[in-house]
Amino acid sequence: MSKRYLGIDIGAESVKLVELEQKGDRLHWTRRWTGEHHKEPDAVLMQKLASWGWEKLDGAAVTGRLSRQTTLQRVPVKQAQVLGFQHLCGDEPATLVSIGSHGFSVLELRDGGHHVFRENSRCSQGTGNFLRQLVERFDLTIEQATDLCADVADPAPLSGRCPVILKTDMTHLANKG
Fold first, then answer.
1. 175 vs 61, higher pLDDT
2. Hey, which of 47, 108, 110, 129 would disulfide with 114, CB 3.0 to 4.6 Å?
């Protein structure tokens, strides 16, 4: 008999879901979904939960900026990112960058289980939304853009957190090809 679990991330602009199924002692990733909530995360979440068979789940947990809007068990962002990466990729060292509409974070997974987590302490509101718009300008999804950047050895330097300055830099780079 298998069990189904749901991970939920409620951000400032979007809701993300991932479903895991347990067979024996292993968890398998069975589906995922990301959608914008247009300032109504509860309505979007409830609709998606109904279509995913919420009543038949064996457990669920939530993370993200707006996670307090639920009564589900909350998981800190760092812990959710570490466990998610390790589930998909194992214990290898890595750097995870998360860019959202109100901020960004960098999580370094180092050898020996040592993790360094940094979040911006200043306003970066709009950065995630801007990057989504830029990616769409090139007729790409976020996943496709991520894949294109994965093996870049010498990335272009960017000004920083401010989306207004970042947009200027990125537009200039995009126009240069």
1. 61
2. 110
Nearest to 160 by CA among 132, 102, 120, 129: 120
pLDDT of residue 76: 92
Beta bridge partners of 57: none
pLDDT one-digit tens code per residue, 5-36:
999 999 888 999 999 999 988 889 999 999 99
CB 104 within 8 A of CB 98: yes
| pTM assigned to the model | 0.70
- DSSP states along 34-77: EEE-TT-HHHHHHHHHHHTTGGG-SEEEEESTTGGGS-SEE--H
Category of 90 on φ-ψ map: left (φ > 0), alpha (ψ -120 to 50) or beta: left
Q: Which amino acid is at 100?
A: G
CA 10-144-11 angle, 5° bins = 10
**What integer best gives the mean pLDDT of the chain?**
86
Distance CA 74, CA 54 (A): 17
Residue found by looking up tokens 């760092």 in the block: 78
Distance CA 100, CA 93 (A): 23
pLDDT above 90 for 47: yes
Q: CA 171 to CA 177: how far, in whole Å?
A: 10
Beta-bridge partners for 115:
109
